Amino acid sequence: MALHTDVSEIKNYEDLCYVEDGKNEDGETLFRFAPVTEALFFHMMVTSTGGSITDKNYRLVFERIWIWEQIQGPMLMGANGESRPITLKDVKDHIGLKTNAYENGKRAFKERVCTTLFDRSRRVSAKQEKELETAVEQLGEAVDDAA
Hints:
Helices cover 54% and strands 13% of the residues. The radius of gyration is 22 Å and the shape is elongated. By secondary structure, it is an alpha+beta fold. Strand 2 and strand 3 (29-33) form a beta hairpin. The longest helix is centred in the last third of the chain and has 42 residues, at 105-146. It folds into two domains: 1-103, no CATH class; 106-147. It starts with a strand and ends with a helix.
């Protein structure tokens, strides 16, 4: 499913949601979505809060983004090239943002979080098992070489 977005109902959306992105061949200024706005679009798909940020749900949207970023890390790149988390202010400033992301509810979000954590733990344990096997092999080779 393609992600459809609408920022036209966000206060001051022209200044908040867009940044200049050079000029075209006719010298006209080009624009792209601002990094915060773009990150929020993608977070809306993960948070299962429905496709909009509203006066009623902005805290829930923020809380779920915060939880997700604890697992996956921040999606947003700051001006200095380093990642930074989405803030409550970022979310509140984007009240009116709409996407076609669906609402799955609290249970679905919890299941997504748990599944992600379990998958990550399996990858970590497999990686550490491989590192341990490699270390044991290297130690065995070092002992053989010393003998």
